Predict the structure.
Amino acid sequence: MPNVAALMERTLKSPFLDFVKEVGSEAAAKLAHSVQGVYLVGGQVRDLLLERHVYDIDLMVAGDARKLAAHLAQHRGGQVLAATVFGTVKLEVPGLSADIAMARRESYERPGALPRVEKGDPKEDLARRDYTINAMAIDLWPGRFGTLFDFYGGMRDITLKRLRVLHEQSFADDPTRILRGLRYEARLGFQFETRTAGLLTRDMHHLEAVSGPRIRSEVMRILREPTRAAALSRAEDLGVLAAIHPALRVPKRVAEAMAASAEGTEDLPYFVALMGAALTEEEARAVAARLDPPREWTELLLAGPSYRAISRLLEKPDLKPSEIVEVLSPFPTDALRAQLAVAPPTLQRERLNLYLSELRAVRQACTGDDLIAAGVPAGPLVGELLDELRRARLDGLLHSKIEEEAMVKRRLPILLARQGGEAGRS
Ligand code: ATP
């Protein structure tokens, strides 16, 4: 078995390197009765072998993971956060955080269901993983430090830049691995190896059985990556999106807009809005029902078709700025940014741009209190007059607070008389 200690010395920055060295020596010296092995595992091993930066630490423990976490927290002056699912604990020590989990094995009762989890050994723990490149471990025990456990040819697949599942049933057991794979493919510039690609096609229909929140969480992870557009386009081309729901689509112009956004930007609401930008209302509702998202997502998805329903109003040549605001202000800003990215180069686009860059921020100078001080009775009239002032500002009819106050003085008797008339009639 190869030893990658020298690579670790070269690639891992402080404080990660000191930490991984110390974990094994502390466990061996102080906890040898309850911990038999500690391994760096999963994505960090992959990134280390790719000489990519490692940000977090995932540890697999043969033995008592909680005891090890508690000991390290005490030793390093950190804290153990509440145990998450399946008894994984999160350790936070100055400068880094680490997920620490006992080695476990998993079995699946039906496709798309959550696995049954039991205590296992390190080899079984690697056997439950998604791709060979994520199924390697590095021994951190003193005397064995740096030994690479690679039972499935992960290192070879890293060299060949390919994604390979560990067994025939992998995608059927957990179809979300398909979405994970698309994310890695785009991020790392890897490709599904031929047999894995065949299994993906064979088994992607199982995505239908996966719950909305699980799918959404993977989609969200894709959207957070700079290479989101490539991953989603590929998902579209392979029929993976349609397997999740036939209404879920990422057409070319949406993918292009996603690709054009600044690399690395984390702007989730905007990307969700882009996903809804080209859908019909029926499709957007179906996608929202399938993904079962928080209300904000549903609004962003549905904003696409609602916007398109009013978009022709924005093509009218003689539209005043206040009218543009009236049409666009009900929409979430992220939805309008998404529409701007996919709109045709017509008046509509110009107006979207004007609204987002200028009109949206235009306010009258007077406040409600100013109006009350000027004699406007507290009540709905205050809001009405403030709106009127804002519209007049937008349309360039007023330029200062003095002009606004003058307009209020002019309008007030008329509005009060109208109000009196309305009160008399009711
Ligand atoms: P990233 O760089 O995207 O964070 P990661 O590999 O660290 O990638 P995690 O989602 O944090 O990804 O998962 C940690 C490890 O757990 C993975 O490397 C993989 O070995 C395993 N894993 C996670 N999800 C699955 C899954 N659905 N099926 C099998 N193994 C999984």
Summary: Residues 248 and 287 are 6 Å apart (CA to CA). The mean pLDDT is 93.
